[in-house]
Amino acid sequence: MSIQEVTLPEFNTDIDDLFARMNPEPQTSMEEEYADEMSDIDFSIFRHKLATIATEGKEVMAKLGVSSALRSEDSGTGVYTASGDMCGAAAGVYYHALSGQLPIKYTLSKWATEESVRIEDGDIFFSTDPIYGATHTPDQIAFMPVIVDGILVGWVSAVAHQADVGAMEPGLSAVARNAWSDGVRLLPQKIGSNYGLREDLVQSIGNMTRVPDEQVLDIKARVAACTRMVRRMKKIAEDLGTESFVGAARRCVDDGRVQVRRRLQEFNDGTYRSTVFIDGVGGDMGLQRIHCAITKKGDELHVNLQGTSPQNPFAFNAYASMPVTTLANPFFSYLLSDVPPSVGLLDQIKMEIPDGTCLSASADAAVSCSLWPTFLLQAAAHCATMKMAFDSDHRDKLSATQSANAVGGYGVGVNQHGLLAADLYVDPVNGSGGGARPDADGVDVFAGIWGNYMDTNDAEELEIRGPYYKIYSRIARDGHGFGKFRGGSGQDTAYVAHKVPDALSHGTMGFGTKFPTAPGIFGGYAGNTTPGAYIIGSDVIDRMRSGEWDAPNSTGELVENRLCEGEYNFDYATYPAINVTDGDVWMMVGAGGGGWGDALERDPQMVVDDLRAGVISEFTVKEIYKVAYDPESLLVEADETEKLRDEARAERKQVGKPYNEFIQEWEQQSPPEHALKYFGEFPGTVA
Amino acid sequence: MADKTPSKVQVAEYLDINLDLEVWECNKCSHGLGAATQNYKEGCLIRDRSPEDIHQPIIEGEYTFAPDPEWCRIIECYCPNCGVLIDTEYLPPGHPLTHDMEIDIEQLKAKHSANEGQ
Ligand SMILES: [Zn+2]
């Protein structure tokens, strides 16, 4: 069979520094020639079509896939220029689409001219190795070229998180110690051609995981999304002409650059810093620092991560391609939420990451939990950029940090239907609380910090899929940062195992047990901390059968009052896999977003309304908000409240110390030695 | 007629920068908080609080549902005059306070005098 020649873009095939290629490629001559071919109106219609195509692809993937994370839209679809620069996306999670750039650029560099591979119309590529772009091993990407009249005019991708990827533990392996134990790592490679998959290859990938059927079906869901997008893109390119299409796709990127420059000019020049702490590294507890100094000058943003803790010996590390994609959420979903997403929006950001940190890990590091340190970076970057943008016309786009906790659980085993199944319990993660806003509370049960547009699982669907059901699902009480406006609370939920044929392997991964992860802003407090918690051998099912089970209002109420029999266990948010069987219960408390402003400035009526709704406790009303109220009627006693608040302000002035006096005493203290095992030098220096 | 140049710019919920004097001021009570080129926290009253003051423990033991006071402290910065809570930081004991806002005063002044000219 003869190989049809495909016209490729001019492309620098030297990709030794692949991570640096997150930024847009130089304009090709065709892109330059046809950059202004379209009128502004036609261009805006074109760009809208790309967004619609990406959205359609994302929906196709969600409808056809199996993995709970994929179905709850921990996913993203992207459309790219011929050189692999993201020119449109749909989220889910924007950084899934952004990270798709690297496997495309790798493919252009390595395989386009390799006789045994090449790039042709209808080819299907797939990649799972974070070295080549996926954010961590479970974020698998399918991607396809868009070729019209023999010219490569663009690419599409579909990315989603896979529940099990054959790592040393089910789900993600927090305790993996190197790159050879954290799951399947496939180079960007061709797994199909002429719009058809190579079934032998796809089955082989499934064979590397604990749940082959799910893996195979979810590859097909991603590919179905891509083929749909390719079909739509080709139609547009055929209608417009390939040159016009190429020019306009590139214009999406360059217009993004113009928009971000204009926006950055509106903010005050200066350096804005934020420091946050993660309290574990996967296989062990210990503090790690994520420090972010953002210097804004004119239309440029320089992000310096000096002071970030060293690479750790477990899987809470990220490769250096991740930190810049991490900025997608604060930028795409907040500061530039009114601008269509493209990689152009990140082009003004210069990242400086010292070697050897947990955010610039070596190639042999385990990174299956790479997202955890990057969530913290996102929290820090969010805080710093919001402070940068406060004095501007964009205050309506600001918020305190949304919850950066991500206590996700997994269950892998034979389900009640006799099928192998893997599930990620995403509710407490995707249902984390939003950050408080300048003029309103954060949204309860909002989204994970990495993607504002995800959803929690449908409870009934989960119960059909796995041998367990939910025994309560609430908005977490006191589960947010207090403030003038409070953060949103996360979801507080629990599952009981039921009709487990054999044993179900269950564990969690996360952080934020000893140290909260969502700082407040401008005097607001941080969101809550959450441990891992489970009950072995509970009698919940018996109690339900006999009508003696009243679902508690919170996990706190369940464990405080021991509302069922059984062996109660509390652990760090990442606890290793345990085998659970009928009656065992695991509780998952989602974390909340940071608060905005001084809690003593909160409208007392809003405080009492939260009490009535069960979102805060009496302790919080009295000790944090200093609101007096009638316990029967829950009516605010305004005069008494004002008196209590005046007293609280007076107390602050009495116990607060002048800075120098405070620092002299403060500097004498340090955390316990075991907390500093993975910290690096304490306190060390930061940018 | 009053000077059209805004002598104060609100740069955070509770912080103004007085462009004439080049100092931080409390947005609630106009109390001065030190040179605008320095960290405003140096002009605040500071308090080290146990996180359990704010985040209530639910159970006893190592994992209480609240932050661990040996790992995490809450640093509160108050206006010395009106007592408003300007900033909170969650830090390990002894960890330096963050210089979170270091605004380029010259650019800020230039921006506001340019606005005045319009
Ligand atoms: Zn004041």
Structure characterization notes:
The complex is a heterodimer of chains A (687) and B (118). Chain A is built from 19 helices and 21 strands. Chain A is α+β, with helices and mostly antiparallel strands and 687 residues long. Among the domains of chain A are: 218 residues, no CATH class; 199 residues, no CATH class; 55 residues, no CATH class. In chain A, 62% of the residues are buried. By secondary structure, chain B is mainly β. Chain B is built from 1 helix and 8 strands, in the order ββββββββα. The two termini of chain B are 17 Å apart. Chains A and B meet through strand 8, helix 11, helix 15, helix 17 and helix 18 of A and strand 1, strand 5, strand 6, strand 7 and strand 8 of B. Strand 8 of chain A pairs antiparallel with strand 8 of chain B. Bound molecules: zinc ion. The site of zinc ion has 8 residues of chain B, from loops.
Figure out the total of helices of chain B: 1
DSSP E strands of chain A, number: 21
Could you tell me the mean pLDDT of chain B? 93
Main sheet characteristics of chain A = 7 strands, antiparallel
Radius of gyration of chain B: 18 Å
Radius of gyration of chain A: 25 Å
